[in-house]
Amino acid sequence: MSKSKEIGRLLLEYGLINNDDLNEGLRFQKETGLRLGEALAELGKVNMDDIDWVLSKQLDIPFVIVEDINVNIELLEKFRKEFLLENRILPLYETADHISIVIEDPSNKSAIDFIHDLFGKKVHVSIGNGRKIGNLLKNILKKAGIPELINSLKDIIERIKGTSFYRIDFLLAKHSCGIKVFGSGILRGMMSMEGVFTREDIFRAFDDLEISFLYEQYSSGKNTFLAIYPLANRLEIISLPAIIGSYGLHLPDDTTFSNARIHGLSNFFRSDDPVQGYRYFSTKSNAPCFEKAVYTLDAAPTDFKERYINICMPEKCPACNGAGCRACRELGYEFIHIEGLYSSDELKEKLKEG
């Protein structure tokens, strides 16, 4: 007997459908390509919990109501997140000689064997609603990954302080979050985290670290790209225009930057003449934009008479030639700090000295 007919016969035996329901389900299955149980659920004849309950009776394995599960986070973290989501498996508990799981498809022998080999223990199987398992996993994994994200972001920020990196990029893919840093024309990969992360998760991590920021967002298919410009602290800029290239964009007292989407600050001024790509950040002033501006190091003018300079100029690490090592904190570059009033020629001479 085929699996579809087996499910249909079982539902009939338990009085959950009648013959007319079964025939309608079979016709709908043929039209849609769904499994018979899914077709019957789509038609409203049964729900997926009914089907799972019937299968549990037939296979003589426990049926678990997913909503009532107290999730064991410590056990959950022993599994690769993608494996649990793809196979719709929720670990329940572990003893000295066995591990208990709830799974959508108890005939998924390869997944069950994988768990047996991973733990070297007997696997006790229960059946549960796959859609509910998937939704529960996504919610739990998202919450479970936030502390890891916060700690990783905190570590990255500590590593790039005193450098010319002023932007942190996040690529949010289906099952991962890639993190890079940018500044002075250098784009450096920092890490990739497994898990399901959203823009709100990234914002929450910065909130936890009490860092406000400007940001840009782009989406492509299922991926989201976030370019975040932290506002590290306030300072009194001696003379404007200024050139700043140390970690985080410094927010001058009594001024604000232009054309940015902002998180963590209120009453933010937006320029009437925004500059896309943040090649410089104009401040609120009656003077023309170019006369009242904060430049990033990689967008600084080539010729100027007198500017306030507060930069960390990058040079390839002599120990690893840019590959990354302990001496340069795996960044591939060392950074010379320069601060004061300079002309473009004076700054070039100063850099030569360094």
What is the fold's blueprint, element by element?
Blueprint (H helix, E strand, L loop, with lengths): L2 H11 L5 H14 L3 H7 L5 H12 L13 H4 L4 H7 L1 E6 L3 E6 L5 H11 L2 E6 L2 H31 L6 E6 L3 E8 L2 E9 L4 H10 L3 E9 L2 E9 L2 E2 L6 E3 L6 E2 L8 E3 L16 E3 L10 E4 L10 E10 L16 E10 L1 H10 L1
Parallel strand pairs: 2-3, 9-11, 10-14, 10-15
Antiparallel strand pairs: 1-2, 4-5, 4-8, 5-6, 7-8, 7-12, 13-14, 15-16
Report on the structure:
By secondary structure, the chain is an alpha/beta fold. The protein has four domains: 1-48; 61-160, Type II secretion system, protein E, N-terminal domain (GMP Synthetase, Chain A, domain 3, 2-Layer Sandwich); 161-230, no CATH class; 233-353, no CATH class. The protein is 33% helix and 27% strand. The chain contains ten helices and 16 strands. Strands 6-5-4-8-7-12 form a six-stranded antiparallel sheet. A five-stranded mixed sheet has the order 13-14-10-15-16, covered by helices on one side. A three-stranded mixed sheet has the order 1-2-3. A hairpin with a 2-residue loop joins strand 7 and strand 8 (223-231). The protein is elongated. 31% of the residues are buried.
How much of the residues is beta strand, in percent? Answer: 25-35%
- Oligomeric composition of the shown chains: single chain
Rg of Cα set: 29 Å
Helix content: 25-40%
Assign an overall shape: elongated
Main sheet makeup: 6 strands, antiparallel
Largest sheet strand order: 6-5-4-8-7-12
Derived structural class: alpha/beta
Report mean pLDDT, rounded to a whole number.
Answer: 81
The beta-strand count equals 16
Helix count from the secondary structure assignment: 10
Order of helices and strands: HHHHHHEEHEHEEEHEEEEEEEEEEH
Number of separate domains? 4
Distance between the termini: 81 Å
- Uncertain runs are 1-5, 267-278
